[in-house]
Amino acid sequence: MVTSLGDFHGVDPKLFEESGALDPILGVDTRLFIDPSLLRHTTVPELAESREKVSEHFANVIRLVRNISREDDVFWRRADKLLQFPEVQGLCIGYSSKGVAGKGTGPLKRKRLLSTITQIVRAGNEDAAIFELVGAFEEGVGPDLISDMIAKIIMADLVLFTQRVCSDLGIPMEMTHYSKGLQPDDLPLNPNTKKPIILIPKQILRDLPVAETFADIDWITQHNEAVREELNKIIVGSIRSLTPAERKDRVKHAFIDHPELLKQVIAAYEQEGANFYDFNDDRAGETVWYRASKKLPRQLNLKLSLPIKPTSDDVYAVVEKICLHFKKLIEDNQLCKLLYDKNGQRKHESAAQLLFFGVAAAYCEANDLDLSPESDGGRGPVDFKISSGFSGKVLVEIKLTSNLQLAHGFEKQLPIYQKAESAYKGIYLVIQNDGISDGRWQAFRELVMSSGKRAPTVIVANGVPKPSASIAND
Predict the structure, then answer these.
(1) Cβ distance 389 to 383 under 8 Å?
(2) Where do the domains of the chain lie?
């Protein structure tokens, strides 16, 4: 069953919304991140001193780095210890391929990070805000790791916030251990895993940290002529041709070679106003799918049933019916609007994957089926499973036509389905969103037609929003 913490405990969604906390969807990581820049602007009382805690923690690292004479000396080891952020269970945000536990910072990652910070400090920059920008110039450090680091530093504040919200909403808590080195505390438990849950204020969450805007190579080359000229000498061709790792490497060396540039970036970053994530628009498609899919069975009924001992064909028939209903919802009931932001820009493919995952789960639950969709945190191929007595496999893979891997994804699956003994059955659910050329679309159609009978069934849904009647009649 796909449900949020609030729904599991019967909390009115409006009341949970008013609490200011993100209502975590159990078993599904919401790919949003704690943005340290938003700690400057939050009005959450428990987080009033959080910004100062973050600054002081990283300032202590800088003070130690200033005294490092060689790798692994006493100052290096003490700085390294301050950069150890053990996994925190229960944040329910970020990237986690299995479950909702964080990943922490390993020794090799810390070594690379500390080496880079040491070079930057020796070049003349000692601002603690460097650590908030590090995701833009250090390979292997992304917004999820920055978010986990910040969460660990302000964990006591987040626990207090969680306790207040749960007390106000009547969500039960239990004394539980949630991270190495921290004392057990009263926290709500995930009913599925019995692991603790820590609530996060929506005010401090974003899809991408603001820091990545200012420490991005595009912003830098626009605002610093000397660096732009130097990069133009080094880079043959367009900056846009660089891989993400190459872009980070160029930024890192620009900060080391041009200390004034980093100061300029930090100044711009710290002057940035509140840039909160718009949860109503949800441009990342990380939250709106849940409520939208949850209410659909009440609005548009779909009868589904399975025999006591279902075969692969029985399960496939139900899954196909769900897919065709999803197609109808996309085309005729304007569910496709959730695949675009308020400016009409296409959302990431994961928005469509989460939406289908939610719809499939909602209809299976509404029909009380012993059938559940499972996937990697709601993303990627959806594997429909039965608790017992079924050894086959029915998969649904969602692809947008804007995905350049549309044809490759289909080709990759073919060998699996074409084995004579294969128990696989599957559907390749394609959503058209105008992101494909006529030639590429025709090539995909020809690939499907030539693939033979033992191939995934292809269902195509028109995901381009229809104009309103008044506009269409103009």
Answers:
(1) no
(2) 5-212, 288-472
In whole angstroms, what is the distance from residue 281 CA to residue 344 CA? 11
462, 332 contact by CB (below 8 A): no
DSSP 240: G
Q: What is the DSSP string of 246-293?
A: HHHHHHHHHHHH-HHHHHHHHHHHHH-------TTT-TT-SSHHHHHH
pTM over 0.85? The answer is yes
467 burial via Cβ count (<10 Å: 0-12, 13-18, 19+): exposed
- pLDDT tens for 384-439 read 887 766 677 788 999 999 999 999 989 887 777 667 555 678 899 999 998 899 99
What is d(CA 182, CA 88) in angstroms, rounded to the nearest whole number?
10
Give the H or E element holding residue 51.
helix 50-65
Backbone angles phi, psi at 101, to 5 degrees: -100, 145
Q: Is the dihedral of CA 145, 150, 153, 154 positive or negative?
A: negative
Place of tokens 């420490």: 215
pLDDT tens per residue, range 310-325? 888 899 999 999 999 9
For the chain, the maximum distance between any two Cα atoms, rounded to a whole number of angstroms, is: 75
The enclosing H or E element of 179 equals none
Entry field: residues in the chain: 474
Cβ neighbours around 128 below 10 Å, total: 17
Phi, psi angles (nearest 5°) of residue 188: -70, 155
Running DSSP on this structure, what letter comes out for residue 185? E
